[in-house]
Amino acid sequence: MSEKLAQTPSQTVGPFFHFALIEDGENILINEHTQGQVIRLVGTVYDGEGASIQDALIEIWQADAAGIFNSSEDPNHQKVDPNFKGFGRSDTRNKGQYCFDTVKPSNSSLDDNDQAPYIRLRVFARGMLVHATTRLYFSDEANQADPILSTVPASRRTTLIAKLERSQGVPTYRFDIYLQGDKETVFFEA
Amino acid sequence: MPEDKNLLSTLDWQVHPPYLHPAYKSTTKRSPQHDLTPIKQRLSDLTGPAYGEGDVAEIDADLTKNAVVNGEAIGERIIVVGRLLDEQSRPISNALVEVWQANACGRYIHKQDQHDAPLDPNFKGAGRILTNANGEYHFTSIKPGAYPWGNHHNAWRPAHIHFSVFGRAFNSRLVTQMYFPGDPLLALDPICNGVPDDKARARMISSYAHDVTSPAWALGYRFDIIVNGTKQTPFEIH
Question: What is the pTM of this model?
Answer without folding.
Answer: 0.96
